[in-house]
Amino acid sequence: MTEGSVQDVITEAAGRVDGGDRAVFERFAKRLLEGVESHPTGGAGALAALAVEAFEWISVRRPGEILVRVHNRSDRPGHTILEVLQEDHPFILDTLELLLTRFGAQERLVIHPIVQIERDEAGQLLDVRAEANGSASESYVYIEFVPPTDDPSRINEMTGAAHQVMSWVADVTEDHRRMIRSVRELNANLEFAGPALEGGLTRAERVQRFLDWIIDGRFVFVGMRRYRVHAEGDDLEVQIVPGTGLGMWRDDASSRLQHALRGAEVPLEILEDLEDPRIILISKSHMESRIHRAGRLDRVFV
């Protein structure tokens, strides 16, 4: 749309908003509709209604909260709508596109403004800023997709899945520096232990160079955990180190090694890794990526 037609849509929509909120709404709608050419089925009227609904929906968001809804609108036939609101992070949009692919859906309209929002302590919207000026950046995503669905169980499943992957996106991006720091600490430990290793410092240095390489922007770290291994006679006892999970593995309860396993209780693939004489093992995980891009995750075991 041209600048004039966008303003026409905003002016028409502002008439549906309470007078005291109109100036804030207009700033939000301008950011929302920036770059939007048209609505695929409803034209300018659908965009005006969309702006008003979005403004009402984003009006309250508590700190750290992730809002997700999947719903249908009679004035936008043939499409189902997915909306997300949370703090801005990398990987939000491509992760939602991955989610839609998993559900066999295809986006028909995507609107993704990053908005500078001022809220009170309870999360109530106070203002929308053109510049950051200390206001938090929030990412609002509006997607219309096909085929549409009105099946409540499928809508609930998609809502839950979207909330989960957006939580992972937040955890992964917030923990990025901690994961890099953990790899650097591991490198320092390798240097300290080098003289005691078979092959000595030369062997340890090869592993250190590889770890330096992967933290130099070659990999996107999605999760990390530390494990404690204890030998009891001929058996090994294995357990995660509580509270060391980062990224997608923040929650200790998501690990089958949350509680110590011993001997035959330890999964065979873990025993094989522990018995391998190599310092570092690199393989493809059985887990498919749920954030950023499709494909099986790489697994690095040190």
Q: If you had to describe this structure to a student in words, what would you say it looks like?
A:
- This protein has 302 residues and is α+β, with helices and mostly antiparallel strands.
- It has two domains: 3-173, no CATH class; 176-301, no CATH class.
- Helix content is 39%, strand content 24%.
- The protein has eight helices and 13 strands.
- Strands 1, 2, 3, 4, 5 and 6 form a six-stranded antiparallel β-sheet that branches. It has a three-stranded antiparallel β-sheet with strand order 8-9-11, with no helix packed on it.
- β8 (227-232) and β9 form a beta hairpin.
- The radius of gyration is 24 Å and the shape is elongated.
- The model has no long low-confidence stretch (mean pLDDT 91).
Q: What is the share of helical residues?
A: 25-40%
For the terminal residues, how far apart are their CA atoms? 54 Å
**Rounded average pLDDT:** 91
H/E element order: HHHEEHEEEEHHHEEEEEHEE
Low-pLDDT runs: none
Q: What's the structural domain tally? A: 2
Radius of gyration: 24 Å
Beta-sheet strand percentage?
15-25%
The count of helical stretches stands at 8
Kindly list the characteristics that best describe this protein.
single chain, 302 residues, alpha+beta, 2 domains, 6-stranded antiparallel β-sheet, 3-stranded antiparallel β-sheet
